[in-house]
Amino acid sequence: MPKTTVATLLQQKSARKWVQVHVDTAAEAAAAEAAEIVILSCEADHTLPGIRAAAPSALISAGMPHGSSATPDEAVRAGFDALRRGADAIYCSHSPRFIEAMAREGIPVTGHVGLVPNLAAWTGFRAIGRTAKEALTVLRKAKDIENAGAAFVEVEVVPVQLADHITRMTPMITMGMGCGSVCDTQYLFSSDVLGTNTGHYPRHSKRYADFAAIEAELQAKRVAAFQDFVEDVTRSRYPERRHEVWMDEAEAEAFAKGSASL
Question: Which residues contact 214 (CB under 8 A, 6 or more apart)?
Answer without folding.
Answer: none
